[in-house]
Design a protein that fits this description.
Elements: E1 32-33, E2 36-37, H1 40-54, E3 62-66, H2 73-84, E4 90-94, H3 105-115, E5 117-141, E6 149-159, E7 164-169, H4 171-179, E8 186-191, E9 197-203, E10 216-217, E11 225-235, H5 236-247, H6 249-254, H7 264-279, E12 283-287, E13 289-293, H8 300-309, E14 317-322, E15 326-328, E16 335-337, H9 342-345, E17 348-352, H10 358-371, E18 375-376, H11 378-390, H12 393-398, H13 400-409, E19 414-415, H14 417-426, H15 430-439, H16 441-444
Parallel strand pairs: 3-14, 3-17, 4-13, 9-10, 13-14, 18-19
Antiparallel strand pairs: 1-2, 5-6, 5-8, 5-11, 5-12, 6-7, 8-9, 15-16
Amino acid sequence: MEVRKYRRFERVGAHSHIKGLGLNEKGKAKPVADGLVGQITAREAAGIIVKMIKSGKMAGRAVLLAGPPGTGKTAIAVAIAKELGEDTPFVAISGAEIYSSEIKKTEVLMQAMRKAIGVRIHEFRKIYEGLVTDLEIKTDRHPYNPYAQIPVSARIRLKTKEEEKTFDVDQDITYELLSKGVRVGDVIWIDAETGRVTVVGRGEGEAKYDISTFRKVPLPEGKILKEKEFVHTVTLHDLDVLNARRTSIISLIFGGAEEKEIPPDVRAQVDEQVKKLVDEGRAEILPGVLFIDDVHMLDIEAFSFLSRALESELAPIIILASNRGFTRIRGTDIVAPHGIPLDLLDRLLIIETRAYSSEEIKEIIKIRAQEEGVKLTEEALELLTKIGAERSLRYAVQLLTPASIAAKQEERDVVEKVDVERVQQLFSDVKESAKYLKEYEEKFLK
């Protein structure tokens, strides 16, 4: 007999190990905490940003993370979102993503901003909840086929710990019961307004099998007819798309794809609906984080849009990142710091990120190796640290998984120094590849 072991699918992201900013109660950064290493000044500054956001003092402001490539700018932005709460939306785009042949630049930015604003909606609905103790489906002749039978109504008996009642339901709810496969012994919900049926699970007393695809649930308590609170977390963009579909006749009739550009009046309508829900205490706004990397790739029109958007009542926390000093603002002949117009720079709180030391690089490699499930010998770790310090941290981290595969090819579970040396020969860094092509530039690139 062949026995196979299956592992669940896991995708390890570049910043999946980030859990927060790693600060203590006084806002001081720990050397290594919550997946972050070093960048003490930048993390403490980010901690103050988080406090400003939570106290509602970030209106009209944004954040700029300025530093060389590979110094943790994206990691700090992710950490800020983590500190704001579990449901806080985080949207990351590159400045080059706004250029499209199908959609306007400002529309791309607007959709990104709306995706970064969450709405937690509290909805109270009346439902019938209980354990199905009896179910009788009534049928009648099909109006167009006398030999066929169709369900026309049903009689269902529901039970809780407090009461037990029998209900006669109409044809629509009968179809719902049949489509959801409701049977005696199921615990169900029936929406009193829409008639929608939800199968919660199989009653614990009715479950006769040790292994079953149904979830076992206890007998419901209280009355059968009750009011329940449902909490839904969506983004403003989700609500925009929903309302845009409703206003589109083609989408309504044929179920076509969502509109690529959403009309301003639809967004205004959504904003009014959300404000009304907030005023009634039925919803709350969750300002998220919009992270724009390579901000120098934006043009003057996009910067003007961002400046205006910062003053909006419904605006996310905008965090920009740049690794440029002085560069030309796209769409103009003006050279400005980080390629950003001065009127927008005046609204930014700028946080600098600095190059990592060898010890910090070593700690980062250890964290990434643990996240990717790669075991390293001390010699392999020292070599990767040296590569990260002399070449780049990103290059050293990129070698982790190839080195692990190389070790497995040699039937070893632990990556040794020889495995790192092998993949280093197979995969070049940017400087090596550029130098290689430079030697042949005169021959091939004319």
